[in-house]
Amino acid sequence: MPKITYKTHDDKTHIIDVQNGLTVMEGAIQNDIPGIDADCGGGMSCSTCHVYVDEEWLDKLPAKEDGEEDMLDMVFEPKKNSRLSCQLIVSDNLDGLVVNIPSKQG
Amino acid sequence: MNKTDVLIIGAGPTGLFCAHQLGIIGLGCEIVDNLDKAGGQCIELYPDKPIYDIPAIPECTGKELTNNLLKQIKPFNFNFHLNQRVEEIKKVNDRWQVKTSDNKQFDVASIVIAGGVGSFEPRKFPVKDCEKYEGNTLFYSVKDKSIFKDKTISIFGGGDSALDWAIELSNTSKVNLIHRRDGFSGMEASVQKVKGLNDQGKINLYTKYQLNSVSGEDKINSVKIKHDEGEIKEIKSDYVLGFFGLIMQLGPILDWGLNIDKKKIEVNTENFETNIDGIFAIGDICSYPGKLKLILSGFHEGALAARGCFKYAKPDEKLRFEFTTTSKAAQERLGVKND
């Protein structure tokens, strides 16, 4: 199973096996990783599952849809490596992905 | 003081259908919501997105669903109290006294919390100093646009609110519009209009910039904005407006002594009552083993919670189970005319 690394704002690292097909958001919620709220449950309509992707992974991820970029306008402290974790579907290609969870979701 | 049987907190689909079920069994209710209209997440987050899993409705949008639910409860003439959230609840002699942020007061036998993921509040700037000026020279919504006349306004955001206010205020004020990227989420026609006004010098458009700091004594007099590449610009501003959409927050509900775990209220599955007698929770805000965050589950929860409310509203009466197809009482309440 692909391993996803979640780094929380308090500098804790959680390395989690996430099943292929789940989203990076679901991996966090199912494993009680703090800092990802996912209020809308994965509908790309609340932007409370915001993560910063480690730079080296930026180009390896599927491109953002317009809707995701629109939602990122609303997040707390958006950066170039901002993504919504509900839009990152885990696959073998994402094995080793590192995401950083922001200090707050809004 | 509004005296009735039930207060519903939240006018999303779950709250609206619970109101219907209360009406059917002959109870009265009042509905409070922090948004300016009914519909909850359906209307605020995805009014035009189709929903495909409402039983017997193959496809409908959030807006259509809301309108149909409102139509369904119309016969009962329930009151809505919008633009306010419930701040305080207090138990007095087996009834609940409730106060909203707009100082409306209710005296009810029970409360149904259908609050979704919380009440919608504006998202704020990450810059800490902004709090100091909030409500004075920094706002997240416009209540009185006349204060901006002949002033310099810096507007942040890329959605319809930011674009519409930039266009509107450019008639009477000097407007800076600052957005984090070149693309906008607002309507294309508005984007083109803003770009035109920028070309004419009526709006100063700064893209790929974000707020870096605000300064001023009691009031803001300038803001610094930072480009993606690190460059910082200082621009004079009398007022700052931020439009970053809304976020849902539980707010005062956290302080009512309810069993809350991960922002969800624990309920039983018999009637969706919480650990506090007379307070029910339904829809996205409640949790129980097997909870599915679907609108259809919220309808089921609302139907049972409404019946749970009955014993508090009419302790001396017994609720008889009836179908709307045959119940004369239910049909009368619905205003159905039988020949």
What does this structure look like?
The complex is a heterodimer of chains A (about 110) and B (about 350). Chain A is an alpha+beta fold. Chain A has one domain (about 5-100): Ubiquitin-like (UB roll), CATH 3.10.20.30. Chain A has two helices and five strands; from the N terminus they run ββαβαββ. Chain A has a five-stranded mixed beta sheet. The longest helix of chain A has 7 residues, at about 25-30. Chain A is globular. The termini of chain A are far apart. The mean pLDDT of chain A is about 95. Chain B has about 350 residues and is of the alpha/beta class. Chain B folds into two domains: about 1-120 and about 245-335, FAD/NAD(P)-binding domain (3-Layer(bba) Sandwich); about 125-245, 3-Layer(bba) Sandwich (FAD/NAD(P)-binding domain). In chain B, about 25% of the residues lie in helices and about 30% in strands. Chain B has eight helices and 22 strands. Chain B has helices spanning about 15-25, 40-45, 60-75, 130-135, 160-170, 190-200, 295-315, 330-335; strands spanning about 1-10, 30, 50, 60, 80, 85-90, 95-100, 105-115, 120, 140, 150-155, 175-180, 205, 210-215, 220-225, 230-235, 240, 245-250, 260, 265, 280, 285. In chain B, helix 5 (about 160-170) links the parallel strand 11 (about 150-155) and strand 12. In chain B, helix 1 runs parallel beside helix 3, helix 1 (about 15-25) packs across helix 7 and helix 5 (about 160-170) runs parallel beside helix 6. The two termini of chain B are about 40 Å apart. The chains are: A alpha+beta (about 110), B alpha/beta (about 350). The interface of A and B includes residues 39, 47 and 70 of A.
